Amino acid sequence: MLKVLFLCTGNSCRSQMAEGWVRALKSDAIEAWSAGIEKHGMNPLAMKVMAEAGVDISGQYSKTVDELPRREFDYVITLCGHASENCPYFPGKAKRLHAGFDDPPQLAKDAKSEEEALVHYRRVRDEIRAFVEAMPGNLPAE
User: Is residue 141 assigned to a domain?
Assistant: First the structure.
């Protein structure tokens, strides 16, 4: 079973979505974890759009890399530029890969309503789903 860590700045939105999608779609082949460089708490709109798609991430929580159980990851996938540039060193065989996705809270900061904000969250949710659906074929060979 592949062990994958999704890493973002705050572990509140994109990395949580990715972890949720892997658990929902690929749990037979991939063990997913998510973490952040910092801890920003779970984003309620991310939870809402994932629930709309039938994936409950409300049991997940925002955490830093240091809070993860000790394990060797096969892949560390950064989902934002800040995490890619500040990704901590992972000893062992973990391959680092950057798969950038837009930041829904940043895109939605000027939204006039929650519904307008959710449009951004849904688009990124669906892009992350497509990335996860293509796994592990879209990951570099061991």
Answer: no
Catalytic residue among 4, 5, 7, 8: 8
Catalytic residue among 25, 53, 87, 108: 87
Number of domains the chain contains: 1
| pLDDT value of position 98 | 87
State mean pLDDT over 83-93. Answer: 63
Question: For residue 98, what is the domain's CATH number?
Answer: 3.40.50.2300
87 labelled catalytic:
yes
DSSP 106: H
DSSP label at residue 70: S
Q: What is the pLDDT of residues 45-78, one digit of tens each?
A: 999 999 999 999 999 999 998 898 888 899 999 8
Active site residue 13: no
What is the C-alpha to C-alpha distance for residues 47 and 56, in angstroms, rounded to an integer? 7
Residue 31 burial (C-beta neighbours within 10 Å; 0-12, 13-18, 19+): middle
The residue segments making up the domain with residue 45 are 2-133
- Measured distance CA(100)–CA(83) in Å, rounded: 10
- Cα–Cα separations (whole angstroms), residue 121 to 29, 45, 66, 105, 138: 27, 7, 27, 8, 23
